[in-house]
């Protein structure tokens, strides 16, 4: 079965073709980052309009790369939510229009299920069950994953998401949008030990996170500096990254201990962070645990994870072509596949 995946929940248009026997055949991404950068964040209306421009050309490029025709597509998966309503509507309406025109079924996909299953696109891929650390721009959650659609929430952020904390802290340090990758690069130049920031909720006894206080601590630290020279900037970036990484690593280990599971899967944009990967790998090696990551290109939003998640949910494919979007949507409400 050949599944076309369409991702348009936020500021990237991601298109991919996934074949249930042959694997990922093609994927293309158009990021709107440059367009939104001058506004310091995503402008929803601009995002929607740009998705309209990109979806079909990127689909044609995927078909070309894969050597396929439109008529070869067996089903069309699209992100139904959560995300920006207007942006989601673009993907949903194009997916349903294509489905209707080709008389092929459509599969609405939960964006976070896409992120969550993206490590299964890697080789080697983890087998169920595993603990998932989902750390993206809008979410920070620990989940026990026993199968597709069998997600038990173990803990989550009570305020900002990890990626959001990276982005907001980067802004405080005068870095562009989205600041996560830039802050991480800056931290590479930092000196350990000059600043120490709090580890929020490290000893809270549960698996929840809180990151907004960390951002405030950075703000205080920045204000205390006479000048924010490049080295000081880098030292603060490192202190922030060390704090957030330590909390994510320790809580992930606690989740593994609590569930008795031996595998950790990391998904979402913050999963691209090098220090997080290093620290998780180190901690896992010591405890004989295994950690899995998505291929780097599939940490942030992409079409491959939507095509793949759709392929796991062919049972839910429908010919109704009556669609809505779900800007807010709780992952734990999904049915098992
Ligand atoms: P959600 O999936 O929750 O709706 P999103 O789609 O915006 O949110 P992703 O695309 O998964 O989130 O990830 C984007 C986030 O990842 C941004 O906050 C970005 O700063 C962060 N990020 C990307 N690369 C890195 C990195 N190397 N280090 C830290 N953060 C990073
Ligand atoms: Mg994004
Ligand atoms: Fe995302």
Automatic annotation (TrEMBL):
Keywords, alphabetical: Acyltransferase, Cytoplasm, Iron, Metal-binding, Transferase, tRNA processing
Binding annotation for Fe cation: 111, 115, 301
Domain Gcp-like: 24-308
Binding site for substrate: 134-138, 167, 180, 273
One Pfam family this sequence matches: TsaD
One of the GO biological process terms: tRNA threonylcarbamoyladenosine modification
Reported function: Required for the formation of a threonylcarbamoyl group on adenosine at position 37 (t(6)A37) in tRNAs that read codons beginning with adenine. Is involved in the transfer of the threonylcarbamoyl moiety of threonylcarbamoyl-AMP (TC-AMP) to the N6 group of A37, together with TsaE and TsaB. TsaD likely plays a direct catalytic role in this reaction.
Family: Belongs to the KAE1 / TsaD family.
This protein's name: tRNA N6-adenosine threonylcarbamoyltransferase
Native organism taxonomy: Bacteria, Pseudomonadati, Pseudomonadota, Betaproteobacteria, Neisseriales
